[in-house]
Amino acid sequence: MALDPAFVADCPYGPAGLLMDDVLRVDREASLVVARMPTHDELPLTREQRAHPVRHPRHVSGGLMVHMTGMVAFVHAYYVLDLRHAEGWIGYGGRIHGARFKALARPGEPMELECRATQLRRTPTSILARYDFRFTQGSAVVYEGDQTALWQKVPAAD
User: Which of 1, 6, 41, 40 has the alpha carbon at shortest distance from 21?
Assistant: First the structure.
């Protein structure tokens, strides 16, 4: 499924910060989503690299990959947890338990961003979620992460 305009409108980041173009899989039962991220030379941080073909080849920045964990977790929150930013829900990363950069992701071939919730603790106004992330480019695993985020329903302003 391509990005739903309602999802894009509900996202706390605009399309230039969302940086994905498709939701490839939603498996509510497995608490899993997979999204696609195009990679190109004009990505944030990538375009600022002083690239050298051997010493510093152009690549998707590790910092940008960490940002993308938040974006694909928002896909999970929207499609699996049914949280809507427009209804007051917002999430923030709380802890990176592990981040492993396994290979350079080079501009060109899109990356597939997989996010699976491994633990969820719910109250009426919050969800503490632990996620496993796996980002691939072709057959190569480029990033694996284990992170915790807190989703909260913020009360409406009076």
Answer: 1
Pair 121, 42: CB distance under 8 Å = no
For every residue of 92-103, DSSP letters joined together read EEEEEEEEEE-S
d(CA 8, CA 6): 5
**Phi/psi at 22 (nearest 5 deg)?**
-160, 145
In whole angstroms, what is the distance from residue 142 CA to residue 70 CA?
Answer: 17
pLDDT digits (tens, 9 = 90+) for 87-127: 999 999 999 999 999 999 999 999 999 999 999 999 999 99
Q: For residue range 10-29, what is the model confidence (pLDDT) as tens digits? A: 999 998 899 999 999 999 99
CA torsion 135-138-139-143 (nearest 10°) is -20
